Amino acid sequence: MNEIITTGKELIGRFGKDDVSGMAAQLAYFFLLSLFPFMIFLVTLLGYLHIDEERVLAFVSTYAPPETFDLITENVSSLLKNENGGILSIGIIGTLWAASNGVNAIMRAFNRAYEVEESRPFLVARLIAIVLTVAMVVVIGIALLLPVLGHSIGVYLFSFVGLSDSFIAMWEALRWVISSIIFFIVLSFLFAMAPNKRIKYTNTAIGALLSTVAWQGVSLLFSFYVSNMGNFSGTYGSLGGVIILMIWFYLTGIVIILGGELNAIIYRRRMAQR
């Protein structure tokens, strides 16, 4: 218990020392920059796969604040009117370029957490950022689609072996857990690869768990606040949706960086005990 309290105090101290707030603001900017190119790619891909985008948006609405969801919906509707193969390639290029800058910001934040300088060549660091970006896009895309499409997938799989409806009901419950596990896996991968230090995947589990649970909790609480107590439109007018989206991304950035900071604290303690 004392160790948990000590770790919590150290984590709070690192919040100010490593400028977690400032780094999270950078992440929020790059997340916003990469959002709409990613939407172009995702919506176009859904068109090729014949997936109903309304079901995906219904899942997004579970976590996204209402005014932010409205902003995303408007842009998705606009993109659907201009669906073509060329947009898909543009979406990939735009997403990789913009989102890799966001991963670069994460890499800098984690280097600061582990108290190391970035010594990797620029091209190597950029390649790592792009690989991490692709991994994040793919895995987060799966985490997004699985809860929405889980029923259809479950029915399709179980029909081959003649399982009863009770197994499909079990799938309905497990698919939400699976999406969280996928999010946990991509965070573990990010925490291990991003810093300029050799980190074992097994040593990233605690931080990834913290970030996974905290992100879901923060997203739901922030959505509740915006729905019931916040009045961003009254203050910011037509920019209210964008401001809410930026705050949501900012909170997401804090959650991700704190997970990395926690892993760094645990790593330093293990090294000191050797």
TrEMBL record:
- Subcellular location, record wording: Cell membrane
Provide the primary localization: membrane
Q: What membrane topology does this protein have?
A: Multi-pass membrane protein
Matching entries from InterPro entries are given as:
Virul_fac_BrkB (IPR017039)
Q: Name one GO cellular component term.
A: plasma membrane
What protein name does the entry list?
A: YihY/virulence factor BrkB family protein
- Organism whose genome encodes this protein: Halobacillus locisalis
Q: Name one Pfam family in it.
A: Virul_fac_BrkB
Q: What is the lineage of its organism?
A: Bacteria, Bacillati, Bacillota, Bacilli, Bacillales
> Which sequence ranges are marked TM in the entry?
27-51, 86-106, 127-153, 173-194, 206-227, 239-266
